[in-house]
Amino acid sequence: MNNHTKILLTEDEMPKAWYNIQPDLPEPLPPTLHPGTGQPVGPQDLAPLFAMELIKQEVSQERYIEIPEEVQEVYKLWRPTPLLRAKRLEKLLGTPAKIYYKYEGTSPAGSHKPNTAVPQAYYNMKEGTKRITTETGAGQWGCALSLACSLFHMECKVYMVKVSYFQKPYRRSMMEVYGASVVASPSPDTNAGRMALEADPQSNGSLGLAISEAVEDAAMREDTKYSLGSVLNHVLMHQTVIGQEAKKQMEKADAYPDIVIGCVGGGSNFAGVAFPFVKDKLEGKNIRIVAVEPEACPTLTKGVYHYDFGDTAQLAPIVKMYTLGHTFMPAGIHAGGLRYHGMSPLVSELYDHKIIEAVAVHQVPVFDAAVEFARTEGILPAPESAHAVKVAIDEALACKESGEAKNILFNMSGHGLFDMGAYDAYLAGKLEDYAYPRAKVEEALAHLPNV
Q1: pLDDT for 130-162, tens place per residue?
Q2: Residues 62 and 86 in one domain
Q3: Are residues 201 and 244 in the same domain?
Q4: What span, in angstroms and rounded, lies between the C-alpha atoms of 432 and 53?
Q5: Domain CATH number, residue 116
Q6: In a shared domain, residues 132 and 267
Q7: How far apart are CA 111 and CA 107, in angstroms?
Q8: Are residues 156 and 247 in the same domain?
Q9: What is the pTM of this model?
Q10: pLDDT digit string (tens) for 94-114?
Q11: Which domain, by its residues, includes 278?
């Protein structure tokens, strides 16, 4: 299959277990702390928010955790996803490199997010949960959880970051088609939202604030749990079906990757494709693994590795991670997604130990790359995924300069068909490059908890 454009797997070749990277880390993760007491959290502290099975997965030291049959059956709606060779892009670039991409836009929600939304909804349903709350930024996660709740006959309440609520109305419509209730965050529905609106009636919102609202909502009702689409250990673990499939497909193409690339906001997209290959690297394989983030929210490249709250209102647990500070508010002109102030503790530890690399890129070159990709390969990337496209092109051009025929793999984590507002702004020349100022970073870091 080394000359095929599409490398496919059958349903029988789907992963039967998720890969849990925790046993393979250089050292155990620092403990998660209670936001009120500062002491390590136990299962009883997390039980009001999460299904018990998900809490067990969050701390599990088992390398592989079996995927329930009911979840595998839902996965078959779109998994296994295709691996494609970007031959037309290679030809345009004139590179000796081979560019492969794992395309997760074939899911019903159009992104990789259902890989974790489905098991999270399933475990909640099994434990009797009737309603799930969550936040969403660009809308991919909100669409995925709305779909999953619909499949398992549960209510879903989505707090959508206000700037995206108005920039991406069709994401909101899609959630509502699946039966979810969607409000712009900050909203008048919670104390956290009301306080934010009182402080700034024109607030664009942030993921940290939307998390505060969703957590508060869940904590106030017995029939409700909270669900998160990134950052947490169990969320990243569910996404490893991507990388496990990619490994099998690369084997069929007889082309083990020299470089693996994924965009990174909270960590789920990147971890999904990268973690199975990180395992290989920890076992001695010579491979580069690159996380790509926006210059407007440069968590890894400009943040600090420190304990911080997962949300703005300081209701969520405190974890050690790379962070820009929980008071971080993204710029309204930033259209590329990936706007969370923090980073997955798992990704943070790997970066701190220099097992993975990180690079920050500006949004205009990101959209340049997305359009170039669309005009050669035909798929319109989600703005988040376009960050990985940009660096894959950069690496391919570096191979052109050096003459090296490297194998480049990246995660095309979703299509951009509901992100046309951002593309409209790009095509009209209205997008601006924005680097988050160092002074604002320093100001936000001044509010880190004293742990």
Answers
A1: 999 999 988 999 999 999 999 999 999 999 999
A2: no
A3: no
A4: 44
A5: 3.40.50.1100
A6: no
A7: 6
A8: no
A9: 0.95
A10: 999 999 999 999 999 999 999
A11: 6-11+79-110+236-445
